[in-house]
């Protein structure tokens, strides 16, 4: 037709497979370098904790007045402004997921940043560790959970004025309701036949009752806050049990 001009078809661009291959190799090398740098542990963020796994746990035990008694989180302890409040800093716990504790009383090293007492051995009960251990199943790294200890209110000790004076060194008349008192627990309920001194571990109790002759201390912690920080597929030799 008049005035019609045939438009030449555009030439198809050839695919530069060599260039694509080079780019792909570079991407794979970058991925390999990242994996080599961080290892395979980063994959644990997608893995749920299973029974027998070794877990590193950050924790905070809170008493009935919501005071942190012992925690692996330094910022939790440094936020305590009351000079009379007793709070301890410990390292993270390493436990096996959903596994029973082998002992009734488990010591962990702790320090009080507000005084120069030094390192003490704080006593955690096997039942408390088991609560943490069982709560971890199904959790992922970075996930947090609050555990309620239903037996904390029953963990109490009543003593006479003289008994209290012996363990606290304080005047009974000056003790107030809600005041914190260190209590020592031994790992052997019976006196050894060889007269050896049993190991003793500290827990912080709270004055929950008193009258003219007796005082009642509660050494249970109703709230436990935990965060799963690390997870390994096997059991760790450095776990608490």
- Count structural domains: 2
Terminal Cα separation, in Å? Answer: 93 Å
Which sequence of SSEs, written as H and E, runs from N to C? HEEHEEEEHEEHEEEE
Sequence stretches where pLDDT stays below 50 over 5 or more residues: none
Strand residue percentage: 25-35%
Per CATH, the architecture of the largest domain is Roll
Tally of alpha and pi helices: 4
Q: Taking Cα atoms only, what radius of gyration do you get, to the nearest Å?
A: 29 Å
Share of helix among residues? 10-25%
Task: Specify the structural class.
Answer: alpha+beta
Number of strands: 12
Q: What's the overall average pLDDT, rounded?
A: 82
Give your account of this protein's structure.
19% of the residues lie in helices and 32% in strands. It has 241 residues and is of the alpha+beta class. It folds into 2 domains: 15-46; 50-232, Chitinase A, domain 3, CATH 3.10.50. The longest helix has 22 residues, at 17-38. The radius of gyration is 29 Å and the shape is elongated. The model has no long low-confidence stretch (mean pLDDT 82).
């Amino acid at each position: 037709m008049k005035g019609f001009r045939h438009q030449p078809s555009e030439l198809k661009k050839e695919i530069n497979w060599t260039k694509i291959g080079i780019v792909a190799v570079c991407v794979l090398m970058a991925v390999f370098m990242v994996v080599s740098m961080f290892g395979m542990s980063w994959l644990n963020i997608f893995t749920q904790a299973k029974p027998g796994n070794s877990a590193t746990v950050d924790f905070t035990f809170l008493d009935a007045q919501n005071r942190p008694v012992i925690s692996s989180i330094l910022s939790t302890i440094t936020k305590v402004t009351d000079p009379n409040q007793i709070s301890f800093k410990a390292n993270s716990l390493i436990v096996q997921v959903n596994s029973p504790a082998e002992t009734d009383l488990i010591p962990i090293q702790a320090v009080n940043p507000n005084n120069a007492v030094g390192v003490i051995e704080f006593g955690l009960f096997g039942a408390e560790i088991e609560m943490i251990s069982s709560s971890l199943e199904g959790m992922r790294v970075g996930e947090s959970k609050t555990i309620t200890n239903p037996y904390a209110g029953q963990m109490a000790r009543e003593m006479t004025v003289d008994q209290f004076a012996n363990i606290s060194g304080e005047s009974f008349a000056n003790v107030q309701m809600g005041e914190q008192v260190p209590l020592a627990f031994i790992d052997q309920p019976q006196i050894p036949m060889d007269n050896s001194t049993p190991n003793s571990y500290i827990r912080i109790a709270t004055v929950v009752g008193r009258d003219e002759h007796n005082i009642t201390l509660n050494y249970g912690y109703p709230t436990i806050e935990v965060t799963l920080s690390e997870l390994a597929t096997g059991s760790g030799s450095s776990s608490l049990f």
